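Consortium newsletter contribution from the modelling node. Members have asked for a concrete example of what our holo predictions look like. Here is one, prepared for the cytidine-5'-monophosphate complex that several groups have been discussing at recent meetings.
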Amino acid sequence: MSSVTVRVPAKVNVQLSVGPLREDGYHDLVNVFHAVSIFDDVVARESDSITVAVTGDWADLVPVDDTNLAVQAARALAKHAGVCYGADLVIHKAIPVAGGMAGGSADAAAALVACNELWGLGLPAEDLMRLAADLGSDVPFSLMGGTALGAGRGELLTELPTTGTFHWTFAMADGGLSTPSVYAECDRLRATPSRGFWPEADAGLLAALRDGDPHALGRCLSNDLQPAALSLRPALAVTLEAGRRLGALGAIVSGSGPTCAFLVEDAAHAARLAQALPERAPIRATATAHGPTPGATIL
Ligand code: C5P
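And here is the predicted structure:
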């Protein structure tokens, strides 16, 4: 096999509840992930060394050195399997960079699946999940896809039942937000330290997902990182308000931001919102999507 292509989805968090800061610098979370149909494709070709190149709208923002998470994933896989194979990775990027949609995590998950196949390792899903958790808190969900409840720092996943398809419009901002700085801002804004407070999954939200009810889901969307993202980037409030005025069923910052996510009625509503938003909000681009979608998949 000389080349493998893996498609991997972006995510939005429909509930992101941030609990106590842990000794290791992470926060315990109740994190309801939902995979949506904005995809990166990662191509892995046989090579003597591990390299990466990036194409697409956001390509100039992605590092192509050893800090690239897809490169780290390929290296971690080779080490785990005890092989010294190489791969030239090419990432075709559609997921915004540092946008709160797990773009880097998606590419790492795709690189794990692609190299496992390219190198003929045949490692089971459990091994890839463990490697994924070491690479980043969101990487296991990028492997898994669908809709899932993430506990711990977000890596301990339980699949959640859903009915039908949810439709979304995303508004991408110019420039990213660094995840650690958004968590740090969240800690700063909280009047009392969050130590000792344990969040729970929202029963109404889980029911809305299970029943395929976008109106109920729209009312339940919640993100504890949103005040922090708005504090660091006040213009996001304008974007959220514009989406609400244009009839979104729910409006929320995606993960640590700055992408804003709008839950809508159907695909036509998503397209109308995507067209109308740029005139009313300071954004770089819009995209429509639906979820849930599968995790990293070999094409
Ligand atoms: O796991 P990942 O490398 O994606 O996390 C990036 C940063 O986000 C961490 O270094 C930490 O500052 C913050 N984080 C956190 N709690 C989590 C997940 C991430 O504080 N559960």
